[in-house]
Predict the 3D structure of the following.
Amino acid sequence: MPQVSEQDLAVVAEQLGRPPRGVVEVAARCVCGRPLVVRTAPRLEDGTPFPTTFYLTCPPAVAAVSTLEASGAMKEMTARVADDADLAAAYRAAHEDYLRRRAELGEVPEIEGISAGGMPDRVKCLHVLVAHSLAVGPGVNPFGDEAPEPLSRCSGRAPVRGARRTARGARVGP
């Protein structure tokens, strides 16, 4: 397993606005060379199970995917899964791929069979699907493959606004 460098961890901390948690490698890099996607351990240092193996960190990329989410893309994608048997099979295969790649990092019984992003039946978090696609390459996650087009504009040097938080103020992500 490749090691993540201290320099990469410092960049990810800058991107997130806080120290990253559970990062084991940079899984994809932005066109500028900075981390774009990190791969995280399935159990964080404090023992918390963490199902999100691939995490999008680059602020311009996160913003581009957030714009897609805000446009209603996830609802439309979920409807397509329900209506298209071939797409549903490909999305289920993406779910299985995600689980297999997480298992390479360790087994965590509390999250067994749970991937991320709503897989395999719905699209809940496009950020995860895009991160998966960017980390493993095209042809694995059909919805992740559709979404990265706006990422080609990423410069990696956009201002960092701090960590993303849930409605209750909890940190999310590595």
